[in-house]
Design a protein that fits this description.
globular; Penicillin V Acylase, Chain A; 10 helices; alpha+beta
């Protein structure tokens, strides 16, 4: 078993200062070193157009562009490198897993991915210029793997495929755009129909009214349905599905069967996080191992989080945090059953063959 951690980052202020603070934190970090080495093996299959990226980001969430400028100021990098690492537009994203379960009171999400991509940052941010306050784990610094905003909108996403990518945003930046700009599921769905999508993902949104919508998205279109379970295949845009869906359908079947027996969020969380219940995954080498389990309770404005499986979650009262009361923790810890290095912890978390 490997012990891992996520740093808790708390910030209140404008987006530029938020970006600058994050740049200072990651400057000369092991994450940046590993990411630089990863690029030496995985050459970009895309080009960065600075003006196009700026135009697209400011169209949906102008504060995020200021955050990128703050990162650039702190890191002293060319803007092209900042956008390649943190811009989330017209760049590539690896395959992954993930399972999501919702009810009228919660959204619970298993984040299944590769350890060499996991940045270990759990972020509280309350902007003073534009956009909504957000709680949740970050990906590529500016993006969000999942999260909830101050209006009680919760978001998670599940990978479908990377075939025939388009000119658009990747999943973690789309998660951030939605949380930054949408107040409820209806606004989120409208935004997901408008945002250009780089790859094919399902985005699951849940709010204080207890509604859940699933937006099946690809560069070729968006379809919306209602359901309380989602894994890694489309139900409407089936022509977009991959050929091998056995495990995705198996996890979906487990959640559909078991959720009817849940009397509480505790029961639902255990279904997702316990390693012997059929949803939690240990396929880390296949880009589909469960690294964290997140739960969001929009009506209570609370967030639960656990690193690794068979864990009791840490509970954050986001409503209290929004009043100015910081959380006392500075780090979350957990264990995962893998010897694969994590990008924010271990030297050699790159793609070189050794």
């Amino acid at each position: 078993m490997k012990t891992i951690h996520s740093d808790i980052i708390q910030f209140r202020g404008n987006h530029f200062d938020f970006g600058y603070m994050q740049g200072e934190r990651i400057k000369n970090s092991i994450t940046v070193k590993n990411r630089d080495n990863q690029w030496k093996v995985r050459k970009p299959r895309f080009s960065i157009d600075v003006e196009e990226t700026k135009r697209m980001i400011t169209r949906f969430a102008p504060g995020i562009w200021d955050e990128l400028l703050g990162l650039q100021e702190a890191l002293r990098w060319p803007i092209e490198k900042v956008l390649k690492e943190f811009g989330g537009y017209r760049i590539d994203y690896g395959r992954s897993g993930c399972s999501i379960l919702t009810s009228e009171n919660y959204l619970i999400r298993n984040y299944d991915y590769h350890p060499k991509t996991y940045e270990g940052r759990y972020v509280f941010y309350q902007p003073t210029d534009v956009g909504y306050a957000i709680i949740g784990p970050s990906q590529r610094v500016t993006g969000r793997m999942d999260g909830m905003n101050e209006k009680g909108l919760a978001v998670g996403y599940n990978f479908m495929h990377r075939k025939n990518p388009g000119d658009g945003f990747i999943c973690c930046m789309i998660g951030r755009l939605v949380l930054e700009s949408a107040a409820n599921v209806n606004e989120a769905v409208d935004l997901l129909k408008e945002i250009p999508h780089r790859h094919s993902f399902s985005y699951v949104v849940n709010d204080q009214n207890g509604e859940t919508f699933i937006a099946e998205t690809s560069p070729r279109g968006v379809e919306v349905r209602q359901s309380n379970t989602c894994t890694n295949h489309f139900e409407i845009m089936k022509e977009e599905n991959r050929n091998h869906l056995v495990d995705s359908k198996r996890r979906l079947s487990v959640m559909e069967k078991e959720r009817k027996n849940h009397s509480s969020i505790e029961d639902a969380f255990r279904l997702m996080n316990d390693s012997d219940r059929g949803v939690f995954s240990d396929l880390y080498g296949s880009w589909a191992g469960t690294i964290h389990t997140s739960a969001y309770l929009p009506k209570e404005m609370k967030a639960w989080f656990a690193l690794g499986g068979d864990r009791n979650p840490v509970v954050f009262n986001f409503a209290e945090w929004l009043t100015g009361r910081d959380v006392s923790l500075d780090k979350l810890t957990g264990e995962v059953d893998t010897d694969i290095p994590f990008v924010h912890i271990d030297n050699g978390a790159d793609w070189f063959k050794r």
